[in-house]
């Protein structure tokens, strides 16, 4: 694919605000041949009137299509045209924030001259996010990310920002429940979550994992006077009954052959009225059409619950304090919904009124009770041990 008539036509249509298909076409061309990028920049400068707007559109498009290498270069081109352009500075700030560069994001957003309510709200969000800034600034570059145990380094920040945000947001949520508590971080992995809860005011955090390699890195990188990292299989942990006030178990239960066994073990380990914070993928989204007894697509998972099964399993031993969802998928964007509406001769273009009714970042934890016509990719439960 070269710089020919098609390029001129596409740029002309984009200059007129005709975005459908044209942004994706250009991004695919860059993806096919990276040498095209500087030529495209030159052509935009030569032929496009609304250059700043187009550079912003292409930057956002590259981010959405996961062509991260070109996001900041496009925004830099916009800022060369106008160093105080609000859209470019906001886009740059939001992207940097999502990969954990809050301080740098804030430095750009503060340059905006016309600070309307949207800008001021984002500045406030960035200031509040500094609570866990040290976690994101420290990088474990000597550990390989396999896709199963999250680590924090530059590669993960820029190549897997969604995965990073999902994990960090779950532990931020946990941090609001651990002040002055004795905490167990079950399947602690690289240890960043234990560190976050330690800094959030936990009296003591015990992080356990079955990976000795992960524990070596956790002790080296995230150790603290009120954290202890040790080997532990959640099927049978070497702790006395009623040892903990809070147990955090994120993305663990689906790795165990019998999830109900871990739930009972958590009950044994918790003090009276203790809290169990547990998350798991929602099979309805991650493995649609499969049954509980069938193997999930993720080869590391023994099974996956749907929402009803997850809640039902937990209520055997716990009282549910709250159920949250993370990374919601609109029913309207679900292939099975489209198919069934087609079969039933319902309007497949109909947009339910609740589609945009929830507010928050894509990977925030949002109570299921606030949501209609959407399904979460991940389920997060806060449970209290039942009194005997």
Automatic annotation (TrEMBL):
Plastid keyword on record: no
InterPro entries, per database record: Methyltranfer_dom, SAM-dependent_MTases_sf, TPR-like_helical_dom_sf
Pfam family, one: Methyltransf_31
Assigned keywords, A-Z: Methyltransferase, Transferase
SUPFAM superfamilies xrefs: S-adenosyl-L-methionine-dependent methyltransferases, TPR-like
GO biological process: methylation
Superkingdom of source: Bacteria
MF annotations from Gene Ontology: methyltransferase activity
Limits of the Methyltransferase domain: 179-287
Record-given protein name: Class I SAM-dependent methyltransferase
């Amino acid at each position: 694919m070269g710089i020919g008539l098609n390029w001129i036509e596409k740029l002309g249509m984009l200059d007129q605000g005709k975005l459908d298909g044209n942004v994706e076409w250009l991004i695919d061309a860059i993806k096919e041949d990276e040498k095209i990028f500087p030529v495209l920049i030159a052509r935009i400068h030569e032929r496009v009137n609304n250059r700043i707007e187009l550079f912003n559109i292409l930057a956002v498009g590259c981010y959405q299509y996961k062509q991260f290498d070109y996001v900041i270069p496009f925004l830099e081109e916009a800022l060369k045209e106008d160093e105080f352009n609000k859209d470019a500075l906001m886009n740059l700030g939001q992207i940097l924030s999502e990969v954990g560069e809050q301080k740098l994001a804030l430095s750009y957003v503060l340059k905006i001259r016309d600070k309307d309510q949207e800008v001021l709200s984002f500045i406030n969000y960035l200031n509040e996010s500094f609570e866990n800034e040290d976690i994101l600034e420290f990088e474990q570059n000597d550990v390989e990310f396999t896709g199963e145990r999250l680590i924090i380094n530059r590669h993960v920040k820029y190549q897997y920002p969604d995965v990073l945000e999902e994990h960090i947001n779950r532990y931020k949520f946990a941090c609001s429940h651990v002040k002055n508590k004795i905490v167990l971080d079950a399947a602690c992995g690289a240890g960043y979550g234990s560190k976050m809860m330690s800094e959030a005011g936990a009296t003591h955090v015990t992080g356990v994992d079955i990976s000795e390699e992960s524990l070596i890195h956790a002790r080296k990188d995230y150790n603290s006077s009120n954290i202890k990292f040790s080997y532990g299989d959640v099927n049978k942990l070497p702790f006395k009954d009623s040892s903990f006030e809070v147990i955090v178990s994120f993305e663990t239960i689906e790795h165990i052959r019998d999830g109900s066994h871990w739930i009972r073990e958590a009950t044994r380990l918790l003090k009276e009225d203790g809290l169990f914070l547990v998350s798991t993928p929602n099979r309805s989204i991650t493995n649609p059409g499969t049954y509980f007894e069938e193997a999930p697509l993720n080869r590391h998972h023994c099974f996956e619950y749907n929402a009803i099964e997850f809640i039902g399993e937990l209520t055997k031993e716990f009282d549910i304090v709250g159920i949250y969802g993370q990374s919601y998928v609109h029913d309207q964007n679900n292939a099975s919904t489209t198919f069934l509406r087609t079969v039933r001769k319902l309007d497949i273009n109909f947009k339910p009124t609740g589609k945009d009714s929830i507010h928050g970042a894509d990977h925030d934890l949002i109570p299921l009770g606030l949501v209609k016509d959407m399904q979460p990719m991940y389920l997060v439960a806060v449970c209290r041990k039942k009194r005997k």
